[in-house]
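As a warm-up, study this chain.
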Amino acid sequence: MSAPTMEERKACWGARDEFWQCLDRHAEDGSKCAELRRGFEGRCPQQWVKYFDKRRDFLKYKKKLETEGYNPPEAAGKS
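Now compare it with the structure written out below.
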C-alpha cells in the first residue's frame, strides 16, 4: 500500500472533521451520522480510521478530566 497523496489526506481529514462535528451536534448519536461515517471510512485508510476513533475517545476523556478532575472509584484502596 502506498502512502496517501496530499489530496487524499485532505479528503480524509475533511471527512473526519465532518463526522466528528456531526457527533458533537447529535450528542454522540452515531445513527444520525451513519452516512458521514461511511464517507470517513471510505476516504481514509483503515489504520487511520482506527487511530482517529481512539484519538477522539482520548480527547473526550482528556476534556472530561480537565473539566471535572480525577475522581477515583469509591472502593479503590479499601479492602
